[in-house]
Amino acid sequence: MKCPHCTLEIHTSFSKQTIYDYGSHPFEALNHQGADSRWEIEAMVCPACNKGILILSERSENWDLREKRMIYPRTSSRPLAPVEVPSSIAEDFNEACLVLDDSPKASAALSRRCLQAILRDKGYTQKDLAPAIAAAIASNTLPSELAESLDAVRNIGNFAAHPMKDTSSGAVLPVELHEAEWNLEVLESLFDFYYVAPALLAAKKAALNQKLAAANKPLIK
What we know:
Number of strands: 4
Shape: flat
Strand order of the largest sheet: 1-2-3-4
Mean pLDDT: 81
Distance between the termini: 46 Å
Radius of gyration: 23 Å
Order of helices and strands: EEEEHHHHH
Number of helices: 5
Structural class: alpha+beta
Largest sheet: 4 strands, antiparallel
Strand content: 5-15%
């Protein structure tokens, strides 16, 4: 596995400790199904950076694995925002990824703020997000697939900020995990379009102009 701290490939050497066994009541509140769960902590120290790694596992009474997650350090399964993205925007995106599993609603709200920051950075300064999205789509500067994806975000974004209710029961409907994930996927596409692709093109153009200048030829604009 790769160390979540230093990202170097390491051999695992976890030690296990049962912190709650069937019939032991202090951790009963953690259980999904009453008092029939067993909880384990796996711990190790990265041999490269000397930092700790902790994994929490929930098992059934028969020791079948129910859930396993890294609890230290907190990590996300999604890649971080590309280095070309402005740091303030990247910070919101990375945090939205980090809290996705714990709170899709919080992740969606952070994604919504991140999206508004991107659009403002690109000149769409409307006060509210929905009109800013509409203006970006109306500009006809986005690829059609990205414009359609961005249009779909309007419903999800407003849903996160203004919870909607079931028309029959009146119950507040939560933001679903797949809806929050969709927000993140659209943000990744916007990162590529607005920041990564232009940076790559600029780097290629600079390299070509360097060669043209060396050959005393006209530079490309």
